[in-house]
Every structure is written in C-alpha cells, then in structure tokens.
C-alpha cells in the first residue's frame, strides 16, 4: 500500500512517501517561503526521486489543523485535488497529534503547543499507547498560555512545538524540575512521515475522509470570518 503524506500547517513544509509503514522518502523544507510557491515543485521532486505516481497512491494523508490558516488550507486543498483525481481516500491527521508522536516512546503526559499569538496557543494532551501512537488525554483547544499551565499543575509533562519554545521561560518557572523541554529542533517540527504513519493506521481502522467533504479544522475563526460574524470550518476530533 502506497501512502502520500503532506504537512503544511506550520512554517515548515513536509512530504513523505510510505510503502506500508516503511518510509521510502521524506522532504522537510524550512525555507521561509510561502507554501504555495514550493509545495508542488517539492511534490514533483519527491515523485522523481521515488518513482511514485500520485495517481497510483492508495491513500493520501495530511494535517487538517490546527495551525496556519493559509498553510492548512493549501495542504488540504492540494491533497483533496490529488485524492479526487486518483479516486482514493484521505486520512486527516491532527497537527497536534502528529507533533506529540515526536516524544514517543515515553510515559509522561505530552503537551504539544503551537504558537497562536496574542499569548495563546493551540494545545492538546496526549499519552503514548502500547502500539507507539499518541492517544488524546484531553480535547484540543485554543487557550491562553497561563490558563493551560495552571490546568497542568502537578503533572509531569513533556512540552513540544514552537509554542513551547516561545514560552520556555514561563514553562520553566511554572514547572521547575517537572517538565521536559527538549532543545532539539527535530522534536519541535512536524514530520510528514509521522502524518503518513498515523494516517495509514487510521485508514486501516476504517477512519478516513471523503475527499468531497474534507475540510480544515482551525479552532479559531479567521479575521475575515470574525469580521463577517460567521462560524469557521470545524471537523470532529479524529
């Protein structure tokens, strides 16, 4: 089974091709350029390197949010077009769930955090299951940083993501000696291969999305939506 995974929810961009659970190739780009400029050229390069043809992929996996409004929209739209052309399903993966898997294996509570500005973060709580995949220990939410840390008082926590990096000092003050904030960049960046792996296992359990109805999951209204006073696009928790 061939899976093509795409990740565009943050400042970085990732693509991966998996045959079953084996990663054939992965690209991770941190070029500071708009995703719309580099996603399709990167996809062409990946296909040339691997010989993979998107038209023959069995499954498409992508992050559906939360994260950058524009980034998530570009990734979901691209995967949606590829899946519709190929007549294949999409496995939607939470950005925070994929980030949490960077900490595996561990027994601590994992708190992936993405910077949402305005002293807020997109955050979730996860624990690693016996099969190595993260399992939600609480609902994903958009939350004030201090409120989140207050809610976690008394826990042994691993913090991950650019939100954890930004608020490192505050986390250290609130959790002296009781938290882990690794400084390796690879643990704070999303990986398309993880998106592909989670998506594949989700597909095997019968949990996948119809390309016609898949939509981003933002957790926050866009500026345009707030100005119009309408609700944003929301998907149920995967």
Descriptors for this entry?
238 residues; alpha/beta; Nucleotidyltransferase, domain 5; disordered C terminus
* Count of distinct strands: 10
Q: How many distinct helices? A: 9
Strand content: 25-35%
Structural class: alpha/beta
- Count of domains: 2
Annotated CATH topology of the largest domain: Nucleotidyltransferase, domain 5
- In round numbers, the mean pLDDT is 89
> What coarse outline follows from CA principal-axis ratios?
globular
Q: Please name the CATH architecture of the largest domain.
A: 2-Layer Sandwich
So what's the oligomer here?
A: single chain
In which range does the helix fraction lie? 25-40%
Identify low-pLDDT runs.
Answer: 230-238
- Report the CATH C-level class of the largest domain: Alpha Beta
**Integer-rounded radius of gyration:** 17 Å
H/E element string? EEEHEHEHEEEHEHHEHHH
Would you identify the CATH H-level superfamily of the largest domain?
Answer: ATPase, nucleotide binding domain
Main beta-sheet strand count, sense and barrel state: 5 strands, mixed
Task: Report what the structure shows.
With 238 residues, the chain is α/β, with parallel strands linked by helices. The chain folds into 2 domains: 2-95 and 190-228, Nucleotidyltransferase, domain 5 (2-Layer Sandwich), CATH 3.30.420; 96-188, 2-Layer Sandwich (Nucleotidyltransferase, domain 5). Helices cover 34% and strands 28% of the residues. It contains 9 helices and 10 strands. The protein has helices at residues 35-50, 69-86, 95-100, 145-151, 162-166, 168-174, 185-188, 192-204, 223-228, and strands spanning 2-7, 13-19, 22-29, 59-65, 90-94, 109-115, 120-128, 134-144, 157-160, 179-180. It has a 5-stranded mixed sheet with strand order 3-2-1-4-5, sandwiched between helices. It has a 5-stranded mixed sheet with strand order 8-7-6-9-10. The longest helix is centred in the N-terminal third of the chain and has 18 residues, at 69-86. It is globular, with a radius of gyration of 17 Å. Residues 230-238 have low confidence and may be disordered.
